[in-house]
Design a protein that fits this description.
single chain, 468 residues, alpha+beta, 2 domains, four-stranded antiparallel beta sheet, 15 helices
């Protein structure tokens, strides 16, 4: 039987039982729609996470620490690393060396400290951190109230939303979502002043070490000493950020941000300074960690290798991203399994429809065989009918799944708007998902047609012609 005749006959047979075949096709469409909607949600969430991490600059960022202070993140590096007392200090010379490595845009120290900030004569203890001027394009500052720092050394601060709520005494009660404070309600803080009290480290030459040792506020050490001087600095509130740009630091995240150059010029006492009271004093700054910005995610691995070769530990979000990719792979697997359940149920409808067609068309099948039709011709006819229902169901299912995804995204953005949050694209239907869903529906339909086609081909033409 020619392919054209086969398709024409299959189409005629499908049109004879329009309602039953349409319901079967609709069942396939619903199954494909559930599969597409669930997988599109998983793909969209993965893309959303990737966009935010990339825009936040985390994919092209490397954290550098000294082997004196932290163990390596990789056991292989620990085996080859020098002993802690022989490892290099992460000082200003090391920072400049790292900054001049190929593909490195900048390397800046992590300056953060707990101090007291006074607002309207009321003290507030919190974590303060230096923020480089290059962070201006960080997506954490999108939708912020006010503006970014006017310069890299301006006496200005950006507040995290929760700290701004604390200053205004408007922190929502625990467990009361309806008391959520919008960022617009915190705008009266803009332009106001905070007074920061901090302890400055003042280095003293080695010749003054005996005299410095006689004063309790001076920390003597081998080769020099330093003293601690208390200062106050007025700061202007220029911005309030709804998101914490350093939320990955957990409990150590800051709630007040200064321009990095200003924070460096203040010479505030750091945890690294306390180490100098227990070992050789260093007159140059020594950092607990450096943040290295790389020209692109593809260069992160080579930059990490160069920094490790220089004698330091490194960590990047790409190291943790492998675990994130495994998580989304498992999530997509489970979403695909649950989405396929409806398609499995629809396959039973195909079997039922074709088996009923055999009972109704036994005389037709007998005539086909009597005039020379072979068993393979009968099988191909039923496969063509099953494939047609699968292909049509796949096409309608993809369209329906796309519509469901749009509806979910619309509803999610309505909820985000009510929470005073920017809209997000939480679903995505790539071309491979569309093609894969249609092919999968076609395969399921053909597999479902195996039993009915085999049963139809085994009919005895004599018994089929006598059937009424």
């Amino acid at each position: 039987m020619k392919a054209y005749d086969l398709l024409e006959l299959a189409g005629r047979n499908l049109r004879e039982s329009v309602l039953r075949n349409s319901l079967t096709t609709l069942g396939i469409a619903v199954g494909v729609a559930s599969l597409v909607a669930m997988l599109a949600l998983g793909v969209g969430l993965q893309a959303l996470a990737g966009r935010h991490l990339e825009k936040a600059g985390l994919f092209d960022t490397v954290i550098v620490t000294s082997r004196r202070d932290f163990r390596s993140y990789e056991h292989e590096d620990e085996k080859d690393a020098a002993s802690a007392d022989k490892s290099r200090l992460l000082d200003e010379a090391a920072r400049q060396e790292i900054e001049h490595l190929p593909n490195v845009l900048e390397a800046y120290p992590d300056i953060r400290f707990i101090t007291e900030l006074q607002y309207q004569s009321k003290p507030h203890m919190t974590m303060v951190a230096g923020m480089p001027f290059s962070a201006k394009d960080n997506d954490a500052f999108e939708g912020m109230a006010g503006h970014f720092f006017s310069s890299d050394a301006a006496p200005e601060v950006i507040l995290q939303k929760s700290f701004a709520e604390e200053l205004m005494g408007k922190a929502p009660k625990r467990g009361r979502a309806d008391d959520e404070i919008s960022i617009s309600q915190l705008q009266p803080l803009l332009g106001k002043q905070l007074v920061m009290r901090y302890a400055e480290r003042v280095n003293e030459p080695a010749s003054d070490a005996p005299a410095a040792a006689a004063r309790p506020e001076v920390a003597p050490a081998e080769g020099g000493s330093y003293s601690v001087v208390s200062h106050q600095l007025p700061l202007t509130i220029v911005g309030i950020a709804d998101l914490d740009p350093e939320s990955m630091r957990g409990s150590a995240r800051a709630r007040v941000f200064l321009p990095l150059k200003l924070a460096q010029d203040l010479h505030v006492m750091q945890p690294a300074d306390l180490r100098d009271t227990m070992r050789a004093f260093s007159s140059t700054p020594v950092y607990l960690s450096l943040t290295v910005r790389v020209s692109g995610p593809k260069q992160v691995q080579s930059v990490q290798a160069a920094i490790k070769k220089a004698g330091f530990n490194t960590f990047s979000i790409l190291d943790a991203n492998r675990g994130l990719q495994r998580f989304f792979a498992v999530l997509d697997l489970f979403l695909g399994i649950f989405g396929s359940l409806a398609l499995a149920v629809a396959s039973l409808g195909i079997v039922n429809t074709l088996v009923m067609a055999i009972l109704e068309r036994r005389r037709e099948i007998g005539i086909m065989k009597a005039i020379g039709g072979s068993d393979s011709d009968v099988k191909r006819l039923f496969f063509a009918e099953a494939g047609a229902m699968g292909a049509l169901g796949g096409l309608f299912g993809v369209a329906l799944g796309w519509g469901i995804g749009r509806l979910i995204n619309f509803g999610a953005n309505l909820w985000l708007k009510r929470q005073d949050l920017p809209p997000e694209q939480i679903w995505s239907v790539p071309w491979w998902l569309i093609a894969g869903a249609i092919v999968f529906a076609l395969l399921v339909s053909l597999i479902s047609g195996l039993y009915p086609a085999s049963r139809a081909a085994k009919l005895d033409p004599v018994q089929a012609l006598r059937y009424e």
